[in-house]
Design goal:
Length: 369
């Protein structure tokens, strides 16, 4: 690494750093992170902080409650969020702002753009955005689920240069360092493939956070495909942050794509979830990314799920091959009605007047998956 010349960086901090003993917030590990943020800002680098920890910070207020109860966890998040923000705010002599998101906010294109504009406006006014998932209202359908992946989505929305994911170990090892003394740290990852995911293992087992090394690799893949330098570092040691500021790599550095995805394609691929499916014949051969090719109702043999105009859908063959994710210009109800018409002339005239079934402006090719 050379001396960092970041214009904008996203720092992700997990629950274990916020509330290591689940007895409220502790500044013990946060001081060095806060100092790193202060020094970045002094160097002219804008910083966005993605901070987990609301549930862990609020859990001590519910000593006699069953912590696996969803309603209780949401209450913990509501109580702990204010304590967490107050703890961060005490560590800075400049203003901060709270941004609470659900996946529904990120996968809706209009709201996604609004999030970007809000972050830009805060940073332009020297205010530190502190982002967290809105655990008080999320459901299985609405949640991202872990703040590693959330941080990558925020980094893409904010058009950051770098994403720094804080972990409890130095980075990605070729095997679990807690179980193998001969585990070796990977200081550089050029390509994220199945071998890299195999090294990451499964989810966290410490009971504090919701992620693990695997979610950090997922986040890294999202970020590097957007052209964002990504690091997994040990967030429990001040040395990690000093090394970063000195242009040194303290953990695992993931190389960004030489040719990043276009912004709208990245959003469609890595942020927007398909709300339903449109199924075509196995011999369907049109290239849906090509302006000369299109998808017509006569080629559709099935519609799955319920979706509205503007929702993201998956177009796949009936043999299971995924073709594209795209913005639908039709609701599932209307598309079902048109596709079932025996009169092909009616369907073609309708589509000619109404427009294409999927939007060419928002389409991501999935055939290589």
């Amino acid at each position: 690494m050379s001396h960092p010349n970041w214009k904008r960086v996203v720092v992700k901090v997990g629950s274990a750093l916020i509330s290591p003993n689940q007895q409220g917030c502790s500044s013990h590990y946060l001081l060095s992170i806060a100092q790193f943020i202060v020094r970045c800002r002094a160097n002219g680098t804008q910083v966005v902080l993605v901070s987990s920890g609301s549930v862990a910070a609020g859990s001590h207020m519910f000593p006699d409650q069953e912590k696996t109860d969803i309603a209780v966890k949401k209450a913990m998040a509501a109580a702990g969020q204010t304590e967490m923000i107050a703890t961060w705010d005490r560590l800075f002599d400049f203003p901060s702002a709270q941004i609470l998101l659900t996946h529904a906010d990120l996968r809706d294109r209009e709201r996604y753009v609004s999030i970007r504009e809000t972050i830009d406006s805060l940073l332009d006014n020297n205010i530190l955005p502190i982002v967290n998932e809105n655990d008080t209202v999320t459901t299985d359908k609405l949640k991202v689920g872990d703040n590693d992946n959330l941080s990558a989505m925020v980094a893409a929305a904010a058009d950051a240069d770098s994403l720094i994911i804080c972990s409890d170990i130095d980075g990605l090892y070729d095997k679990n360092p807690h179980e193998h003394d001969d585990a070796k740290l990977l200081s550089w990852v050029e390509e994220i493939d199945e071998k890299i995911y195999a090294m990451a293992g499964g989810a966290a087992e410490d009971g504090v956070g919701t992620g693990g090394m695997r979610t950090k690799i997922e986040a890294a893949e999202k970020a590097v495909s957007h052209g964002i330098d990504t690091f997994i570092i040990n967030g429990f040691t001040e040395l990690s942050f000093n090394m970063l500021l000195d242009g040194k790599n303290p953990g695992t550095h993931f190389q960004p794509y030489d040719k990043p995805m276009k912004e709208n394609i990245h959003w469609m691929t890595h942020t927007s979830n398909a709300q339903g499916e449109v199924i075509v014949e196995s011999d369907f051969s049109a290239s849906l990314e090509d302006e000369t090719d299109s998808l017509t109702s006569s080629e559709i043999i099935g519609v799955k799920g319920e979706f509205s105009v503007g929702d993201t859908i998956l177009v796949r063959k009936d043999d299971g091959t995924k073709l594209v994710k795209a913005k639908s210009n039709y609701s599932s109800c209307l598309l079902n009605f048109i596709a079932k018409q025996d009169n092909e002339e009616f369907a073609s005239e309708f589509e000619e007047k109404t427009g294409p079934i999927i939007s060419k402006q928002h389409i991501a090719n999935l055939e290589k998956e």
